[in-house]
Amino acid sequence: MTNSVAPRSLPRPAMWIPLLLFFGISVGGLYYVKWAPYYARAFHAAAQHSIGASILSGTRAAASPLSWQAGVAYSVAYLKAVWQALLLGLALAAGAETLLPRAMLTRIFSGRAASLRAALLGVPSMMCTCCAAPIAVGLMECETSPAAALIYWLANPVLNPATLVFIGFVLGWQWMALRLVLGVALVFALGHWAARWVPQAATRALQPPAPAASPPGAPERHFLLAWGAAFLRLAVRLIPEYAVLVFALGMLRAWLFPEMTPEIGHAPWLAPALAAAGTLFVIPTAGEVPIIQVLQHFGLGAPGAAALLMTLPSVSLPSLAMLGRAFPWRVVAALGFGTFLFGLLAAGLAALLPW
Q: pTM of the predicted model, to two decimals?
């Protein structure tokens, strides 16, 4: 397949320049946006047993009532938390298409060990589900293995080592163990299961149209221009719908999450309801930790907490919508339904375990 923005052909020594640029952006961007801030935040979590207020409801038992102001307030708070990671995700997605050799991506994200390599690459990325979604879209547009692209995407939020540390210090190490065991199962089982719904020709069919061939002798586009064009194309395709869905979920969050009391927190119907709400709702990285902590303070029981622990970070309506740009709707539906089932499984285990 021909990329929609093909990088310029380079002499062999210069082929290392875009490759080094990509790895520089990856390491430098992740250090600035993820690794350094989370390293400092882990010490705060260890000392205070908290990482801040809940983005869902602050320190209150209920979210803000349905209103336009509630949608705007949540959108502002959410985008302030994720904008740097979102830009980095778009930059890495565009870089995968235009800066990396196609043969390298094929070797990493294809073959018998592709799933394991994808998970190992996803763990240190530490992206939330929405910020990792553009990278999964970019990988699919490079015709990598669908299962590997999905596993990379799921491993980012679910197996995030910083979030696991926060869970241990704030909620308890038994919760971290539950998240880790079920998280590994979710990443690999759900990634492979959902990928089975990708038809053989789906990757080519869902590609953006290739540009018209350049006239003979015309210079090909420089790799920096190709990277910038890919970045803008992904942003235009993914960001507007994403922003609208974040606003809508922020406005409706009081309907998705009931006001917490001890009676409601231990009601049998609550865990399935929270598993469904957590599958749809969108949060920044590690946002589930303060949400669960605040709701537990007002009476949330172990099953409901476990359902949120698994579903809130794994997928969201905006991230599934972004994936719908590169995957058939059956894959998107399988990812959402599978996440909901893992939320129910976590709730069932939490009800049986001696917390």
A: 0.90
